[in-house]
Amino acid sequence: MDKFEAFEKYETYQYNDNSREARRNRPGPRKNKKDRRARQVMREISEMDDGINTWVPSYAKALDPRHHERQWVIESVGPFYRDQIVTDVTRLVKGGKEANVYTCIGHPASGMDLIAAKLYRPRMLRHLKNDAVYKAGRMLRDEEGKQMKGRRVKTALRKKTNFGKQVDIQWWIGNEYRTQTQLFKAGASVPKPIAHQGNTILMAYIGDEYGPAPTLSEVRLPQAEAEPLFQRVMDNVALMLENHLIHGDLSAYNILYWEGTIYLIDFPQMVEARHNPHAYELLERDITRVCEYFSSFGIECDPVALARGLWEPYMGPGG
Fold it and tell me: Who's near 97: CB < 8 A, 6+ residues apart?
């Protein structure tokens, strides 16, 4: 009897035992016998192990058992191990104030050899500066993507209660996953999103078994690649705008370079161009940062003109 069969068996006992008619007509001794059987089933369930309770990935094994990161990794990635998406966590790719990224081994059922897991820190909101700029005009959604309404939610966010903080964190993380999914489907140069649960986002790993892809800020591009890669980045900026999105924090630090092409990453601060009053300023800032990086390779560009060239046709006459 596996864990799920045992639980079904317990539910059957509960249903048979707890109906009003059963309670009224049940002899005393029989009730005690059924209670004992139900408790026995629950003990069997608690003693069963589907693997997740004893799963310790390679990276966590190398840490001190008392180290907070060890349990954080196990609890965050464990659900994906249970769902047969990953089998192991092998290394830390990048550590940051808001999140860490880890290399995972993909389960054969996932069809992927390597998977990247982005784990957001519980206190990531402390490190997001000027978050009101990015949140303006954006609908509040829950972890499943459904719009959240109601006085309780708004009051909790305004008063920054524990519930309000949790809603806020899930809003940021869910927004990144939904945005990355939308852009990937639209054909943008972004890692393929795989799954999202709690504080964790899984996506395609860019790199190989020897290490992750570097960011543009870490490489010296061959001169012949600079122009086409700059154009590729700008094509993605235009594609995002066509989908009513602006990255909001684009720079050489969150563009990966791998085998002659680029991948845009880090989307929690993505803004909705139609509704955010700061949209144009953020678009111009994104393009300015991109131009500053590529100018060191002899690429001449006017970020203000580029931003206006994208924005005015998007907004239409009088926009």
Answer: 121, 124, 127
Same domain, 19 and 38: yes
pLDDT at 263 over 90: yes
Give the pLDDT confidence of 49-65 residue by residue, as tens digits.
Answer: 445 568 999 999 999 98
By DSSP bridging, strand 99-106 and strand 114-120 are antiparallel
Domain total in the chain: 3
- Asked whether residue 16 is domain-assigned, the answer is yes
Q: 297: number of CA atoms within 13 Å, CB side?
A: 19
- Per-residue pLDDT tens digits for 291-307: 999 999 999 999 999 99
Among 126, 97, 101, CA closest to 115: 101
**CA 185 to CA 290: how far, in whole Å?**
24
Q: Are residues 227 and 297 in the same domain?
A: yes
Q: Which residues are catalytic?
A: 249, 266
Buried b or exposed e, range 35-47, using 16+ CB within 10 angstroms: eeebeebeebbee
For the ranges 9-23, 182-196, 201-215, 230-244, the lowest mean pLDDT is seen at 9-23
Is 220 inside a domain boundary? yes
Cβ within 8 Å of residue 47, ≥6 positions away: none
Domain boundary, last residue among 66, 96, 126: 126
